[in-house]
Specification:
By secondary structure, this protein is mainly beta. It has one domain. Helices cover 10% and strands 29% of the residues. It has helices at residues 17-22, 81-86, and strands at 4-5, 15-16, 37-38, 40-43, 50-56, 61-67, 75-80, 99-100, 107-108. The longest helix is centred in the N-terminal third of the chain and has 6 residues, at 17-22. The protein is globular, with a radius of gyration of 13 Å.
């Protein structure tokens, strides 16, 4: 499946075309600290793993804040969009995929409550 599509209302589509056009290119928010704007949230629907997307190269590379095991283990880094799109849970929900938060509104990174992942 092409990771960029026009289907904006499908949570399993992690990077709809409309969203991709809004996210700045890589390095455009360098040095902004807590003022970095997070444009999208991708999450594991039955787990804690969450990726807050700030930049996108328009192809495969995301710059994001990844909360995989919890806020104390979180960090900024680069992530392959295709890897997130291809993720499938094995047990206890075989085939379950990551989802995009359909109600997410762009916001400052400093305004995100990482304890509640919202």
């Amino acid at each position: 499946m092409d990771p960029v599509t026009k289907d904006i209302d499908n949570a399993s589509i992690l990077m709809p075309e409309e969203l991709a056009k809004k996210i700045p290119e890589l390095y455009k928010q360098d040095g902004k600290g807590a003022d970095v704007i997070v444009y999208a949230k991708i999450f594991h629907p039955v787990g804690r793993a969450t990726w807050y997307i700030a930049e996108y190269d328009g192809d495969d590379t995301l710059f994001c804040y990844a909360v995989v095991l919890g806020p104390q283990e979180a960090e900024w880094g680069y992530q392959s969009l295709k890897e997130l799109q291809e993720y499938r849970m094995s047990v206890p929900f075989p085939g379950l995929t990551l989802e995009r938060d359909l109600w997410w509104e762009p916001k400052r990174f400093g305004d995100i409550n990482l304890e509640t992942a919202s």
